[in-house]
Amino acid sequence: MDPATWRYGGNTPCLELTAPDGTQFILDCGTGLRMLGNRWRMPNGGGNPETHIFVTHYHWDHIQGIPFFAPLYAENNEFHFYSFRSKFLGRDSLKQVFEAQMALPYFPVDMSAMNAKRKFKEVEGGDTFTIRENKVTARWLNHPQGCLGFRIETPAGTVVYATDNEPGDAKLDESLRELAAGADILINDAQFTPEQLATTRKSWGHSSWKEGVKLAREVGAKTLVLFHHDPDSTDRMVDSILRQAREEFDSVFAASEGMVISLGSTGDNVQAHMPGARTTLRREAQFRAKVSGVTEGGKEFQEETVVRDISLQGALISLQNVPQLQSELQVTMQTPGENGSQSSMRLKGYVVRIDAGTEKGQIAVGVVFTD
Ligand SMILES: [Zn+2]
Ligand SMILES: [Zn+2]
Fold it and tell me: What's the gap in Å between 88 CA and the centre of ligand 1?
């Protein structure tokens, strides 16, 4: 895990969509697919014996999770794959990708270990088809070697997935506007900053938050999700991109590892949350706290409250002793209770850095909490 990207996450594209009729969709097979497969094995982890998987294109970041998707090795599962015929691969493009990825010496087992039923369907820009109660539309996007965008209309609302797409081609821009028209959730490529897109990253096949906002406004999309963050963008950079986008559009989220977005009944705002199942350590505690921020309506506020159920990543501790790097520290903290009572919180910390302290005779020790 890269500490600079632990909040938004560092996996490559993979989304799961569950329609009201129970139909399960997976959008792209990036490295996130491995975690998705593992989650399905947990109780109530979701998963469906019949799943429809859309692959937008064949660049590594969109296919590299396939061999690591455990449900593909279970024979009771059935997967329907949808992707286009690449002129570089010809017939059965995606099937060939599977075989190439699983060929020796790239992977320890061959295709015969993949016991799930797999069906492949070729789609191309302009195609429309239905899967149970859901209507799917595919359109070409502007990206090197081609890429498809998908519009999925479910009885609960419409989700448009348009990643790996560069604005600037009049015909394809218009096609994208048609694809995204009135979407409840528009997931759009926001890899680069507007400055990068205009200069050093021009014609790399990606977009920016500003183009996403412009598109969302033009087509009347309700919620915009900034997607496909640059691998070199740290969490703080994505924070800044999101902040700028929120100044110009009401409902914007930055895609984030594990984020869940639910479509309510018509007229309701979409709800987004981040399930706590991440690697962070959670503890019950009671800290008095002053909280200030901005309301949904854009007003600044400040209030005093009590923090409970805190999740901890790490801490900077001032010490006189110099602990060994990569050793374990026991840290016991006093937590002042709500009515003067005190309790303590015991944690195990793993020493990740040692710096000169701000006070004489003290050093600053960085720990990551592990237990
Ligand atoms: Zn790509
Ligand atoms: Zn990509």
Answer: 15
- Closest of 151, 99, 148, 88 to residue 124, by C-alpha: 148
Helix (H, G, I), strand (E, B) or coil at 39: helix
83, 122, 149, 153 from 128: Cα distances, Å: 13, 12, 12, 11
pTM of the model: 0.82
Q: Which ligand is located closest to the Cα atom of residue 205?
A: 1
pLDDT for 54-63, tens place per residue? 999 999 999 9
Q: Whose atoms come closest to the Cα of 13: which ligand?
A: 2
Q: Which ligand places an atom closest to the C-alpha of 58?
A: 1
Residue among 330, 334, 314 nearest 1 (CA): 314
CA of 32 to the centre of ligand 2 (A): 13
- For residue 227, the CA-to-ligand 2 centroid distance in Å is 10
| Ligand 1 center–CA 143 separation, angstroms | 7
What's the CA-to-centroid distance between 59 and ligand 1, angstroms? 5
**Residue 367 — φ and ψ, nearest 5°?**
-125, 150
What phi, psi does 69 have (nearest 5°)? -95, 100
The span from the CA of 137 to the CA of 257, in Å, is 26
Cα separation, 9 vs 356, in Å, equals: 30
- Reported as a single tens digit per residue, the pLDDT across 299-320 is 888 998 888 878 788 888 999 8
- Ligand 2 mean position, distance from CA 165 (Å): 9
Q: What is the distance between the alpha carbons of residues 184 and 271, in angstroms, rounded to a whole number?
A: 12
